């Protein structure tokens, strides 16, 4: 249905009344096909769009719901690991709160990598 709507001209960046995109929905529920399609077809800005209710990205919602594969997909696509929601939580913190230490450790390692890459980019500019 998402592909059909997109082919009819609907924006993949559309949000609902809570400010959530289809990526938030797909990430929260672990719908890998939806997440994969949106990563491939939507503007990259969708990765770091925050909702109105909690200030969360799709990565926050995937981490909070222990959607490991979706988290890996979002991280690989370039989703920020350092954005804090309205409660001050990063995706890693939400994985810890969900008692998924393996996911939290993965997100921490990727956070460190992402920070190093950003620092390297700043020094070359």
UniProtKB/TrEMBL annotation:
It comes from Portunus trituberculatus. This is Eye-specific diacylglycerol kinase. GO terms for molecular function: kinase activity. PROSITE patterns: ANK_REP_REGION (PS50297), ANK_REPEAT (PS50088). InterPro entries: Ankyrin_rpt (IPR002110), Ankyrin_rpt-contain_sf (IPR036770). The keyword Calcium does not apply. Keywords: ANK repeat, Kinase, Repeat, Transferase. Transmembrane segments: none annotated. The gene is rdgA_0. The keyword Repeat applies. ANK repeats lie at residues 18-39, 54-86.
């Amino acid at each position: 249905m998402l592909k059909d709507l997109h082919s009819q001209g609907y924006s993949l960046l559309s949000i609902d009344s809570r400010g959530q995109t289809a990526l938030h929905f797909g990430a929260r529920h672990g719908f890998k096909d939806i997440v994969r399609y949106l990563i491939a077809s939507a503007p990259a800005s969708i990765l770091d769009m925050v909702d109105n209710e909690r200030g969360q990205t799709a990565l926050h919602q995937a981490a909070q719901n222990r959607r490991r594969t979706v988290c890996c997909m979002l991280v690989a696509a370039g989703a920020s690991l350092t954005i804090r929601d309205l409660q001050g939580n990063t995706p890693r913190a939400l994985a810890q709160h969900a008692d998924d230490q393996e996911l939290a450790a993965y997100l921490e390692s990727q956070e460190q990598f992402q920070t190093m890459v950003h620092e390297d980019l700043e020094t070359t500019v």
